[in-house]
Amino acid sequence: MISMNEYYKPISYQVTAAEEGWMLKTVLNRRLGVSRKLTSRLKLTEQGITLNGERVYISHYVKEGDLVEIRLEQETSEDILPQPIPFDILYEDEELLIVNKQPGIIVHPTHGHYTDTLANGVVYYWQEKGERFRFRPVHRLDQETSGVLAIAKNAYVHQHISEQMIAGTVLKKYTALVHGTPPAMEGRIDGPIDRDPLEPHRRIVTDSGYPALTLYKVRETFAAGSLVELQLGSGRTHQIRVHMTSIDCPLIGDKLYSYEALGLPAPDLEAAVRLNAAIGRQALHAAQLGFVHPLTREEMVFEAPLPADMAELSRLMAGGQL
């Protein structure tokens, strides 16, 4: 059997008078928000689900004042090599780690790229603190994209934030530097997205694609481009990059969706090439991420400042130097 010190701190709920007579599984689902998948997993451990400190069947009927507790087993990412890779922490508690991902770093090891990722650094950080967590990013950012990234420390928290993502209640705001100027200072791009049948690694806007919505506001305009704030209404792969290209404003530095890569006419190709070379990566930054904390139920918004390379590029464009 698993000893108590191999569990994380219990998540608790006290049954109210209105819930007396409910089955335990109903309390788990409706009050603690435990999914069926997680319930099945918890049932397999000795102290995974308890009622007043005792292990009972989830079909057991509860009474007012009963204490329902769930305990998740401690986990580690044994498949991730710990490495002393520095990263910026924006916030941390017992359930969450929020970081400001730097541009150029991959979030999670992939085939052929097992080291030098954010995951390697986070696993090392936890190991040095004597803590045991599995690396569970709630969402992903492209290698070249910087900004706010949320990492759940257990399956319960990951499930709850993922459900908020699916429901569309998570705030996701980005800042981008783009070529040209959008057709309006504020607007919405409502264009379905799917794989490009000719280039499977690339996405395109197509009537047969999956619904995708991006809201944008132009914050500054320059001779050769614009600083744009974007808010996602959905979470399709490469969504911002594809949508901005669809209105003839590809992201500066984007190699996959550039004028040249797509064979699109550029208003000033020489200027576009200079801008792309000036930053060397897609000028996209995850500026804000907001959601309801799964345990405290507090609405939280995390912000990451504009990275140095984008701030410098913006300054040069504003001064007419690019």
Automatic annotation (TrEMBL):
Q: Does the keyword Aminoacyl-tRNA synthetase apply?
A: no
Q: What does the record give as EC number?
A: 5.4.99.-
Keywords associated with the record: Isomerase, RNA-binding
- Report the catalytic activity: a uridine in RNA = a pseudouridine in RNA
- One Pfam family, short name please? PseudoU_synth_2
Please indicate which superkingdom the organism of origin belongs to: Bacteria
According to the entry, every stretch annotated as the Pseudouridine synthase RsuA/RluA-like domain falls at 96-245
Assigned protein family: Belongs to the pseudouridine synthase RluA family.
Functionally, this protein is described as follows: Responsible for synthesis of pseudouridine from uracil.
Q: What is this protein called?
A: Pseudouridine synthase
